[in-house]
Amino acid sequence: MPEPTVSNERSPRIPGFDAEATPVLGIGLGLTGLALGLRPRLAAVPLALTALAALLYRDPERNTPQDADAIFAAADGTIMRIDEIYEHRFLHTDSLRIAVAQAPWDVSVNRSPASGEVRYVEHVPGEYRPVWDAEAAERNTRTYIGIATAWGPMLITQIAGPLARKITCNVQRGDRVEAGERIGRVRFGARVDLIVQRDTVQSLLKVGQHLAAGVTRIASATPL
Question: Is the pLDDT of residue 166 over 80?
Fold first, then answer.
């Protein structure tokens, strides 16, 4: 069985940006300064590329509200569908799936929707279809993260797209995570599905709504 890419947060990092941004932004600013000294007219090119890198590598600090019964968004992006499925990998029951499309300019960091223990992690290689494709959730390269909470299990699926071909998972089985904690990332546009038991939540969302990971309350859970 393929294992997911597991990565720990690295330091130092520039506040508000992912650790991987440090060398990228450093090189970009250095080239901009060099161009200003040699060819000022050309400085706009590396400066623009540095600004683009800063946009793509954002990782702002966020304060997740203290609410044990709340389920928060796992990813920044726009809700593309809310449907009912039978989840057979981790929940093994009728479930509610909230599919979120992440644009390349959305913050790429994924966060835990609730507090709990990581009980399931699996990486599945596959295709790179557009995230709105009806079969992307089962055919694309993806990583599953199953978390057991006080009100029941939930499954987060990080799904790669045509540009987002690298999925990073920051957690392993047995890890304890808090609501809003970073659990991974998928850059340059992707899809992140949150799957919860149908009879344990009341959805507060609508298709087309834009979410902020770890901040937007997307559902209210019913404790077991």
Answer: yes
